[in-house]
Design a protein that fits this description.
The complex is a heterodimer. By secondary structure, chain A is an all-alpha fold. Chain A has one domain. In chain A, 77% of the residues lie in helices and 0% in strands. Chain A has helices at residues 2-15, 18-39, 45-69, 72-78, 83-86, 92-124, 131-157, 160-174, 178-181, 191-202, 212-217, 223-249. The two termini of chain A are 23 Å apart. By secondary structure, chain B is α/β, with parallel strands linked by helices. Chain B has two domains: 4-222, 3-Layer(aba) Sandwich (Rossmann fold), CATH 3.40.50; 232-292, Alpha-Beta Plaits. Chain B is built from eleven helices and 14 strands. Chain B has helices at 48-55, 76-80, 97-107, 112-125, 141-153, 171-186, 198-204, 222-226, 242-251, 269-281, 296-307; strands at residues 4-14, 21-32, 37-42, 63-68, 71-72, 82-85, 159-163, 190-194, 207-212, 215-221, 230-238, 254-258, 261-266, 285-293. A six-stranded mixed sheet of chain B has the order 6-7-8-3-9-10, sandwiched between helices. In chain B, β7 (159-163), α6 and β8 form a beta-alpha-beta unit. The longest helix of chain B has 16 residues, at 171-186. The chains are: A mainly alpha, B alpha/beta. Chain A binds chain B through residues 1-2, 4-6, 9, 12-13, 16-17, 79-91, 250, 252-253, and chain B through 53, 56-60, 76-77, 79-80, 82, 84, 86, 88-92, 94-95, 103-104, 106-109, 148, 151-152.
Amino acid sequence: MRIWAVAHNTFREAVRDRVLYVLVFFAAASIFGSKALGWISIGQDIKIMVDISLAAISVFGVLIAIFVGTNLVHKEIDKRTIYTILCRPMARYEFVLGKCLGLAGLLAVVVFVMTAIAAVYVFLLGGRLTSSFYLAALLIYWKLLLITALAVLLSALTAPILGAIIVFAAYVVGHATNIFINLPPQFDGTVSKQVLQALYYVLPNLSHFDIASEAANGVAIAPSYVVWALAYGTVYTAMLLTLAALAFEDKDV
Amino acid sequence: MDAIVTHDLTKTYQSHVGRGSVTSLDGLNLAVQQNEVFGFLGKNGAGKTTTIKLLCSLLRPTRGTASVMGFDARSRKARQRIGYLPENPYFYEYLNPRETLDFYGQLQGLDRSERAAEWLKLSECLDLATIADQRVRGFSKGMRQRLGFAVALVGDPPALILDEPMSGLDPMGRRMIRELILRLRDEGKTIFFSSHVLGDVEQICDRVGILVKGKLVVQGRIEELIAQRFHKVEVILHGLNETAAAALAADAKLARVSEAGRHFVYDDLDSANEAVRAGQAAGAKLVEFTPVRDSLEDYFMRHQEIES
């Protein structure tokens, strides 16, 4: 119940913040604007629109996850609202989980609304979407949950700006972790190779959640792959949230 | 059983690497009895807020223990029994008082009907009904303080811990808070509060503790602490001639003239008695002889000077 109260309040705070609507407006504008790029690619307009729509959902979702997530705990400390919350009979992990859950709820609404806008727009323009499009949106949402958990962990450890930079770097590197494992022969036997290979296993591999090109081309996605990607995201997110709860447990506020 | 007990409670803040550490609270041993109003005094930086945060489990002690209503201050059971009002309380700006109390009611573990009952009780007690649907964003200091008290009282906790509850309030606001604290004491609650406003403390506290540089230098009943010595003695003589007046003024701490006569202020009873005898011998009449006891402020200032 206490987790729910904190989650509901976090969701309510974000919904009453105008910045959210500005971001959603730009995301919707990107989806509508995708038609313009469709015109210059003959016969590929629907494919381009699906591609851009999924990219818009991902990018604007990540922006919300990073900027809201890295401020989530820090803002409560900075504004001192945390004092009257943590002195209540609630565990600190309940507070961290509640904040995350609130942001996860907000992202669910944002991803759902943007997916619905894209689907209706493509339908009105005579296109047909396959199940791959909706599965791609689902995996983007799962990726956003992982990013949110990382942002909340950093929110408990460091200042929001530094946290945002680290999460953004992790987001960029997380889409390209394959380069750490497919190293050229010059790296053989070096310490750099061992470090980069260790990073490959430690950093989140966000490319697992990226099936936008399959969705754009209408290629069917194997259900087993989707289940595997969801499981990977769930385990990684749970691990980050556990670390966030531990980091916050003994923190002086 | 005492309501609040600390034993060797110490908090040291570690600075950045190479800059050492700062001890904000040093070996605090304190006992606050149930159903008393305890005033916690000290200058800025003396360690009052640190103590309060340790009692409310917002800070981890470096050493020592604290308990509230018989439970370790860090336990959920202790926090169930504490109502906390921080200095300059901050609440979610986008909520209104009704939503704010509902939120804290949920954190306290109250169900929907209990929260509705709490709103009815507290909105009446703290006059929140007229601002029930206004967002906190536009609230004045006094309105925030009333809401802060209401939040602290959600769930009817037996112990209230208040950090500077009168700071920044106008005389009406301070009076309202004073009356509220006394009413809560009459209802059986224990109230532990820090304050800079010594006049208010003197009016409502049963006992006080004075903290200087992180150490508790004294604790006890106010009347016992300030009754221990006279602060000054004021003598008023009527009909005193100029020569005698000049002689008495030479030994006095202060001398002035009013319609009642000539006023002389002495540091001790012996000097005052001597002045009365000399004045009467010179033909003057004794109008007033007033030994003035220490006020809490005098007592507080003297302790600050001693410790400095």
